[in-house]
Amino acid sequence: MVPIDEEPRHHLVIANEFVRAFAVEIAPHERTLCHHHPHDYLLYIASDAEIVSAARGEEPKRLSYRDGECELSSAGLTHVVENLGDAPFRNIVVELLPRADAVRRGAAPTGTGGVANVSQIFDDERAAIFNIEIGPGAEVELAGPAVVATPYAENLNPAFVGEIDVKQNEVCDLAWIAPEQDANLFGCWKEAAIVIVFQVGGTDEQRSRVTIVREPLRSLRASRRGAGMNCLSLPGIIIS
């Protein structure tokens, strides 16, 4: 078993006091090392996929994912993921570190010019995820704290998001907008592009309510019974 940041298919792109963000790509018919997720995390799926997740304390699960699905999963998962498909399995993982719960979420992304479609695709007391389809010449206002991702092979040129630190990666470019910081996303690509924004923190309205603890949308968590850290076997392979 290895920590998630040492698993070679999980590329750690952003790390700060609030989040760690990974660009993930599993090649066709390959599997990850047995790895551990120490924090709650947001997951965005950037490709249709058929996978097997073999988690500690559970029978391996065969799962079908669809492009654009997202979820919030609880800390503690230790597993191996195998890509059963003929195309790479790509996703973005944004871990919510303890300080993320102390920050206030900024305003939702807003189009201010040109053709830009903003859709909220996930909402929770702790975070929100937005899908932005931005056309050439369009502009969208973004507010931190947030991770900005281009998971569909569109480069996130620093000039596209103003004075924001952009981390380029072979799987997916990511950028971080700090708390109480604003940025403008510009549609500088030749065609319409998809940008995913992970906003961290709760809104003022949510902070005034009692926090609801939600189960993940998928039953991918490791069983917390027992102290062992071994993963189950995937068919034909013993993983320890």
Shape: globular
Strand content: 35-45%
Biggest sheet character: 6 strands, antiparallel
CATH class of the largest domain: Mainly Beta
Q: Count the helices. How many?
A: 1
Count of individual domains: 2
Spans where pLDDT lies below 50 across 5 or more residues: 209-240
Task: Give an account of the 3D structure.
By secondary structure, the chain is an all-beta fold. The chain folds into two domains: 2-98, Jelly Rolls (Sandwich), CATH 2.60.120.10; 100-207, Jelly Rolls, CATH 2.60.120. The protein contains one helix and 19 strands. It has a six-stranded antiparallel β-sheet, with no helix packed on it. Strands 1-4-9-6-7 form a five-stranded mixed β-sheet, with no helix packed on it. A five-stranded antiparallel β-sheet has the order 2-3-10-5-8, with no helix packed on it. β2 (10-15) and β3 form a beta hairpin. The chain starts with a strand and ends in a 33-residue tail after the last helix.
Q: Which terms would index this structure?
A:
Jelly Rolls; 2% helix; single chain; 1 helix; 19 strands; globular; disordered C terminus; 240 residues; mainly beta; five-stranded mixed beta sheet
Question: How are the SSEs placed, and which strands pair?
Answer:
Blueprint: E1 2-3, E2 10-15, E3 19-26, E4 35-36, E5 41-45, E6 49-55, E7 61-65, E8 70-73, E9 78-83, E10 89-96, E11 110-113, E12 116-123, E13 127-134, E14 139-143, E15 146-150, E16 165-167, E17 173-177, E18 182-186, E19 193-200, H1 204-207
Parallel strand pairs: 1-4
Antiparallel strand pairs: 2-3, 3-10, 4-9, 5-8, 5-10, 6-7, 6-9, 11-14, 12-13, 13-19, 14-18, 15-17, 15-19, 16-17
